[in-house]
Amino acid sequence: MQKDRNLKRFMQLTVYIIALLVLGWGFTPYQSVFLGAILGLIIGSFNIWFMYRKVKKLGQAAAEGTKAYSLGMLTRFALAGLAVLVALRYPDTFHLLSMVIGFSSAYIIIFIDFFLKTIRTQ
After folding, report:
1. How does the protein associate with the membrane (predicted)?
2. What is the domain count for the chain?
């Protein structure tokens, strides 16, 4: 399916960006900044994957005529809150602002991928 390919491409791009962040963590003196970005990107990517799974189940339930109860918003908020708590608890290890940027970058990856795919198809 097309949506499965989109998710696979998103996960591949995310892994490449995490690899770049790991290189930045290993070769620069800004370890806390890069670790915060890695934490945020991992949590953000998991949230996107979790939402994809829930939407897929919702679509199947609608096609079958059964009920789907939740899209897991509370779980995704709890994960984001957990990432913030970890960054606040260990500020010398995880930089809070870079964690927020890393979390947001998961959504930016989707936007850029969609934009580039739209340009390629025209």
Report:
1. Multi-pass membrane protein
2. 1
